[in-house]
Amino acid sequence: MVSIDLLLPVVSKTKIDNYNLSRKREKRNNNIIKIIPIYLKDDIKPHSKIDMLILESLEKKHQNLFDNDILVIAHKVVSKAEDRVVSLEYIKPSAKSLSIAKKNDKDPRIVEIILDESKDIVRLSKGVIIVETKHGFICANAGVDQSNIEDSINHAVLLPIDPDRSARKIRDSLVKKTGKDIAVVITDTFGRPFREGQTNVAIGIAGIEPIKSYIGSADMYGRKLKVTEIAVVDEIASAAELAMGKLERIPFVILRGYNYRKANQKSAQVSKLIRPKEKDLFR
Question: Which residue of 6, 54, 142, 231 shows the fewest CB atoms closer than 10 Å?
Fold first, then answer.
């Protein structure tokens, strides 16, 4: 009978040590990131308490918040709770709105709301209205949306007035109620100018630095990086959308296991992601 040991190749101690070292590095560097969806049974009403709804939904799912969790929230539930739903019945379109609507086959009342929520029209072509919102976001229709709301023919939902403030309010309440140090990211779905399809992005944040900079760091070949800065909160928003979907009634997601840089109120501002107009090559 042949021992299995005789069938193994001879490996030097140095190779074994190097292999063990590489495995330790792999274990240390490859964090496992979990995305945990939180189902919400009931619709959000004006003045609903988002923090309590999250905790109640977590309890039903037998889940808890842990330190360093990132709570990702679809903006629409925040907007509904903050009474940012507008009845079109009371909207009186201006002459400008009527003109734009006629040329672009749009409801003039929706156009009026879009203009009211915007600082500037960036592009107006082929039925698409791209604007700079009052927050500084460049997006279609100023984020004005008629999906996933009751009586959508006669109503529209707007973005939160101050998404960072909304994120801070939710975070502060949950930290106080649970004792867990978490981050909050509020998201919306934006299109992209040179790619088909939409993706989720961060529009409000609390407790997390929005950008991870590699400037000054050396790459794997020793070359110093000069411009690489990763919009981590946008990547978190996009990852969370995989679990949220648009039809599943999952407006909350916990992203767990990502080693993010924490930030105070002054530093955690989504405005850091907005490129100044003078640096924008396409405006």
Answer: 6
Please state, in angstroms and rounded to a whole number, the distance separating the CA atoms of residues 154 and 50. 25
What is the tens place of the pLDDT at every residue in 33-61?
Answer: 999 999 988 889 999 999 999 999 999 98
What are the structural domains, with CATH classification, of the chain? Answer: 33-83+159-275 (3.30.1330.100), 85-158 (3.90.1660.10)
Separation in Å, CA 105 to CA 9, 133, 193, 197: 73, 22, 21, 22
Q: What is the pLDDT of residues 230-276, one digit of tens each?
A: 999 999 999 999 999 777 889 999 999 999 999 988 888 999 999 98
Which residues make beta-bridge pairs with 121? 131
Amino acid found at 173: S
Asked whether the beta carbons of 198 and 191 are under 8 A apart, the reply is yes
Using only the alpha carbons of the chain, give its radius of gyration.
24
